[in-house]
Amino acid sequence: EKGGYEHFMLKEIFEQPRSILDSMRGRMIAESNHLMMSGIREFENKFVNANRIIIVACGTSWHAGLVAEYLIEDLARIPVEVEYASEFRYRNPILNEKDIVIAISQSGETADTLAAIELAKSKGATIFGICNVVGSSIARATDAGAYTHAGPEIGVASTKAFTAQVTVLTLIAMIIGSKRGTLETTKLHELMVELETIPSKVEEALQLNDQIIKIAEQYKDVANCIYLGRGYNFPVALEGALKLKEISYIHAEGYPAAEMKHGPIALIDEQMPVVVIATKDSSYEKVVSNVQEVKARKGKVIAIVTEGDTTIPAMADHVIEIPETSEHLMPLLSVIPLQLLSYHIAVMRGCNVDQPRNLAKSVTVE
Ligand code: F6R
């Protein structure tokens, strides 16, 4: 049932070229400019005229929501707020009929997310769900939605569900952007073509596995780890840190790279590994400076870079090269080495990666 893999988590990491493809199948064909999602079509006018989009979720799904904030604001120019469902539900939030709430949940059973939906409904907002489990409570509680087609996720640490969520949210941002006229046709077409190449680029990123095992061997005994990223890679830094914490029990924190100098930089010494996502995008030059700041304090830099980069490799202790893509789609690639790094470190520490201590696959109590 683990398909020859030692753990479900590893199997699910390796399934991502397929699960990403399955999440866009039938919804997008670049060659014929086909871009359609039945759940959106019904509510197209609502989306096009929305005042605001509020995303509610927990954990890894909340990180996918953060990626969506960048995507929807950039491509569709609608203000987006991303909320922890547990905070939103108790905050007496300001909501009305012109707001759309997008709830993201792999299991579709997360108690806080479900309660946030009920609250938003009572205030008249339209609720759109993105769930992986068909017929789940959240899928049933929403006005409309789109399933991620990641297939069953057994490992407690979410991997393929995250990339499936980001894929579906990318399609949604592209659809709303094109309907609103904020995403021009040529740019839309370029993104569609690029999105179609992502499954094979994920496949390439998975080939880094052996290289990542060697890095994991060197860092498996650390007590702390920092993850840095900016722009589209900031949520990926948070997700990388969460993956490491939950399965290896190493204390890890993710930050927007520039925020480091406002406090976390005090933690950096020659013992501290700093994983930096430094791919070629609009914040690349800024991240180069952040890497210099870490090296000046003798931190150990593990850098995720775009293939062919020479600047960061000259400074970093370890370099992991991933394929080039549009910055809008980069989280789908940059998260892969971070999933593998956490997995291997956890296995080397003898942890139960599929069922980490204190965690359950779906959190049905608040
Ligand atoms: C992280 C993880 C959790 C879930 C969170 C939300 O690997 O598994 O943080 O992402 O409990 O779960 P869903 O998406 O089922 O609502």
From TrEMBL:
Entry's Gene Ontology BP terms: amino sugar biosynthetic process; carbohydrate metabolic process; fructose 6-phosphate metabolic process; protein N-linked glycosylation; UDP-N-acetylglucosamine metabolic process
Coiled-coil stretches: none
Keywords, ordered alphabetically: Aminotransferase, Cytoplasm, Glutamine amidotransferase, Repeat, Transferase
UniProt entry tagged with the keyword Repeat: yes
MF annotations from Gene Ontology: carbohydrate derivative binding; glutamine-fructose-6-phosphate transaminase (isomerizing) activity
Domain SIS: residue ranges: 43-182, 215-356
GO cellular component: cytosol
Source organism superkingdom: Bacteria
Subcellular location, record wording: Cytoplasm
Catalytic reactions of this protein: D-fructose 6-phosphate + L-glutamine = D-glucosamine 6-phosphate + L-glutamate
EC number: 2.6.1.16
Active-site annotation: K361
Function noted in UniProt: Catalyzes the first step in hexosamine metabolism, converting fructose-6P into glucosamine-6P using glutamine as a nitrogen source.
Subunit note: Homodimer.
The protein, known as: Glutamine--fructose-6-phosphate aminotransferase [isomerizing]
